[in-house]
Amino acid sequence: MSQAIAPDQAAVLADPDERRGGTGTLRFVLTKIAEAVASVFLVIVLGFFLFRLLPGDPVAFMARDRPPDPGQIAELRERLGIDKPVLAQFGNYFVGLFQGDFGESYIERRPVLDMIGERLWPTVLLVGSATVLAVALGLWLGIRAAWKRDSFFDRAQTGIALTFWSVPQFWLGLLLLVATNGLFPSRGMHSPDAGPGFFAQSLDVLHHLILPCLTLLAVFYAQYMLVMRSSLLGEMNADYLTTARAKGLRDDLVRRRHAVPNALLPTVTLVFMQFGTVVAGAVTVEAVFSWPGLGQLTYDALHGPDLPVLQGVFIVLASAVVLMNLFAELLYRVLDPRVRTA
């Protein structure tokens, strides 16, 4: 005769999310969104005051080709709004951001948002291509290295990955330029003699993309490979794998259907959380290859310094990192039931 379960016992055995009616998940999401908003606010504050510490005078840079006139210099400072106290400048800048106004470039006299919009696609193309290739290569090599632990393949791939992970991106880019010896374009995104038509233009962009993409790929695939290898090694002695083998499943099925899906969890979240590192590497790589993205725009703006451009790019890139980290935390909660019950 079966024994009935009391209502209070049933509540204890129920899933915590179900017991809370979903309020736990909602509270978690709202908390993370609030933290992301606070992080973006701190990014705005830090970006504004940090770039004020840069050496150089933008007004002196703009007037470098003509004799200095104190009256004209004062008028130019007033027009740019940098004659006011720093706190007043920050207040005006903060109000403008809420209105979608990132300011106007000191050098080019154009809206900063328009300049960022023009340079955003090349950076997305470079970073996106390198990230997709790095993830695919890193996961594949990490799985093979872990499953063949202590083999020559494992030791060789681990050594290569550690070497590439330790190399500065700009230095590796310079080495590739020397090693290829003109085989690939070394500057820009387009060739002036490229043929007309979508196909010819696409091939031309792809030809220019190879070296900067390869530079980022060589550095960033390594961390995905090492994390995947370490995660899979931690799963290989788990009880559920022993049970799967005892049932007669082939070794490749055990790996593909049981071990790899569980080991993928840390690596999947790492892809989003390391987005900021990839973008930071793209800044120096774009400068080496004169790739016309946000990194090259930042490099050019440092010469002024063109403070509105530097602030705008910094806010856009840092906000993208915050959003990727937010997405990673939410995704981790979806993929791992243990986080939901914690």
Walk me through the topology.
Layout: H1 7-13, H2 16-19, H3 23-51, H4 58-62, H5 70-80, H6 86-98, H7 112-147, H8 152-166, H9 169-180, H10 198-235, H11 239-246, H12 251-273, H13 275-289, H14 294-301, H15 307-335, H16 337-340
Strand content: under 5%
- Helicity level: over 70%
Helical/strand content category: mainly alpha
How many β-strands, per DSSP? 0
Number of helices: 16
Mean pLDDT: 78
Radius of gyration: 26 Å
The poorly predicted ranges are: 1-21
Largest sheet: none
Name the shape in a single word: globular
| Amino- and carboxy-terminal Cα gap | 35 Å
Order of helices and strands: HHHHHHHHHHHHHHHH
How would you describe this protein?
By secondary structure, this protein is mostly helical. The chain is 75% helix and 0% strand. The protein starts with 6 loop residues before the first helix and ends with a helix. The N terminus is likely disordered.
Sum this structure up briefly.
This protein has 16 helices and no strands. It is mainly α.
Keywords for this entry:
disordered N terminus; mainly alpha; globular; 16 helices; 342 residues
